[in-house]
Write a structure and sequence with these properties.
- The protein is an all-alpha fold and about 80 residues long.
- The protein is about 60% helix and about 0% strand.
- The protein contains 5 helices and no strands.
- The chain is elongated, with a radius of gyration of 16 Å.
Length: about 80
């Protein structure tokens, strides 16, 4: 994927976010999960994490908590 920025914008952004590409992907993942457009598994793969727990830790550090409701719980205990 390519993101085109206005002339000079990349340099200004990199002044605050030296790892701009990674920060953009992380922001996308957080917002996608917050809006329930990405699953936990999709966030894990997008960020190249090895475990679900690592992904949950990443999200909770950003005050985004697992989308886990009663329906999910009942499904889990039925298995």
């Amino acid at each position: 994927m390519v993101v085109e920025l206005p002339e000079g914008m990349e340099e200004r952004l990199r002044a605050n976010w030296p790892q701009l590409e990674r920060d953009m992907v992380e922001s996308f993942a957080v917002e996608g999960y917050r809006q329930k457009k990405l699953s936990l598994f999709q966030v894990q793969k997008l960020l190249n994490y090895d475990s679900e727990w690592e992904t949950i830790k990443f999200l909770t550090e950003r005050r985004v908590y697992p989308n886990y409701d009663l329906e999910d719980y009942l499904s889990d205990i039925a298995d």
